[in-house]
Specification:
571 residues; alpha/beta; 7-stranded mixed beta sheet
Length: 571
Amino acid sequence: MNMQDLPLTEQVPPLPLTLLPQARQLAQQTGRPLIEVLEELSTLAPEVFVQALGQCMHYPTLTALDLHAMQPMFDLLRFNDASTLHAVLMQKPDQSLYPEQSLYMVLADPFDEPLLLRLQNRLRVPVQWCLAHRNDIAACLQFHETQMRAMDQVQHSDSAAHEEEAPVEALSLKSISEDSSPVVRFVRSTLYDALKAGASDIHLESTLHGLRVKYRIDGVLTEVGGLNGVMQAEQAISRIKVMSELDIAERRIPQDGRCKVHALGREIDLRVSIMPSVVGEDAVLRVLDRKALSEAQGISLEVLGFAPDLLAQIRAQAEAPYGMLLVTGPTGSGKTTTLYGMISEINQGEDKIITIEDPVEYQLPGVLQIPVNEKKGLTFARGLRSILRHDPDKIMVGEIRDGETAQIAVQSALTGHLVLTTVHANNVFDVIGRFTNMGVDAYSFVSAVNVILAQRLVRVICPFCKVDDVPEPALLRKSGLSVETTQHYQFKKGCGCGQCHGSGYKGRKGIAELLLFDDRMRELIVAKAPISQIKALAATTGTRAMRDAGLALVAAGETTLQEINRVTALS
């Protein structure tokens, strides 16, 4: 495909390069994207600005009509990624599948170097880079989102005759705007905005005067809006119950349910918890995006960003022929992602790998994944018993919640299987007490367990607004540090910008502590030695405290002391 196939407008003069320094300075001061500031300073109409910028940077340019005449390639760059990145991969409709130079990577911001690098690393086919206005790209994506929604409705109607499934709520800007009920429109727009923002949980909290809405993004709750009126709040919670097939008349006891929505080009599960309060009912919806990682061509342990030495130890333990590998941490600490990363890396097709989960969050090729269904009697314990009759080599148990499941998992590890599982505890040493309280014999437990991994996710400083920082002495004392011990630290902080929505943080990284079980460790645990002795032995065998791992990120300028204090405690 030749360059002349794309419109490169010659009659529009290029953008004056003298505007760039002024725009960069203003963008840095205000935290706004450079492309928006530059467009304001140019005083040009949007279509003229894009053409002038294309002339300046030697990019072909596309108009809204050009985009409408082309076909997006969402199999190579997913719809939700295109929406987030303000970039879309297009192909002319008269081209065969992926011929040389027939794909066009349409950008809104050519100054976003991290974005360009990310796209270059992701795309594995030749592309022609070109520019379009961000509003035209957004309109293009909105149009194709509506088209996908129509196709989804056809597919669902065809499959409904063959199998009974729970109804799927279709979310799109068009469907939300056309809804006549204000409450239904509020609930659907709340879900849609949360999914676009990348929230892991959606909280709807009843108050004396209505409803508050909060999103958990990067592990932190942020209030994003609300709804005035007690009656409207009750109707919103009732709408959530209807979607989850719960009892709308019952308001005195907790209820748990699930629902599905179709948004951003894929189906997403929501796990719903309704809880009564003194002023009404609260709802929490946990987002379970099954395809978010599985569509990214596999999950690996590197997704969480563990330190290289710790990562090498985890990989070595995941390749053990038998035994138990326990991962612990609070909800949202990345435990399941760690287990999926292990399975993906060890799944070479030579072993039978079976998982039992509640629910199945990501779909893994070549792995038998069993969802827990307590209504039908399929619990973790019962499913695990059945798995053992299915000739497995490696087993993943989503979570050990009770003594029966713990006993079966330990016996499985003792009879030649590698068992990967999670349990809720604060640190690696508390896991020992958890299994003891569940009635597992100490000798069986230490014989089965190979390693315990405790982990957390900490927010990392936004690279777009990162600046040097000097922490207050009071903060150092609160963190157990001093000016002398932190002389080599490269303290940084985020000022807050458009890229991080003013939070100063963008993305998360894993920190962890690893407890390896050797003969000396097993002897201490069986002898019921004090935790202080067990910790002292662990320190001599290389166990690094989770807080120390977090402080190493602070020293490297990747996160802040406030963030480490939020997720870890002084020992």
